[in-house]
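Checklist before submission:
- one chain only
- standard amino acids only
- sequence pasted in full

Submission:
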Amino acid sequence: MDLLTELLTTDFRPLDRRASDLYLSTVAQVKPDMLTRPTPCPDWTLHGLLRHQISQDEGFAAAARGDGARLSAWRGGDLGDDPHAASRTSADLVTRAFADLPLDAELALPEIREGGTFPAALAISFHFVDLVVHAWDVAATINVPWEPAEDLVTASLKVAAIVPDDGRAPGESFAPKLDAPPDAPPKDRLLALLGRSPSWR
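Returned file contents:
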């Protein structure tokens, strides 16, 4: 089975929920005075990164409801005065939206490709890998461990392998891929595939 067929026939929802737990457990360690720190994502402070993930959750939830084509659906993230509570609320929103979604439903994801749609199975995999890697972004920013389970890393590597090279730039979720040593741990290879240096501090 080729990689794309495997991704299209995999139900990523259980993995997505666990990735959400990983992300939220990291965000729970963020203190207010950390929000202005720079992150591994160029041009984003920690506040901007957390807001981005909330916006992504809301956008994917809108897409699952058939209303994802509007870019405004992907721009409304708000941390309020409690970033962890806001992140948990948006995570619950997208989890509920994905729950009963047929995996062959077509979702509009204008931030990835304008004017086209993606099968829900693939869209959920994109949301999943976002959570796993943004959990590292937050962890690296606040200097706490990032310890995704082995199966989360394995599945993320498969999704990362199909992320196109175009559209990677400062201000985007993923930068151009970096080289990783052949003997690098899987976690480090995942980060490098998505434009992150594992040694970033």
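Reviewer check: The chain has seven helices and two strands.
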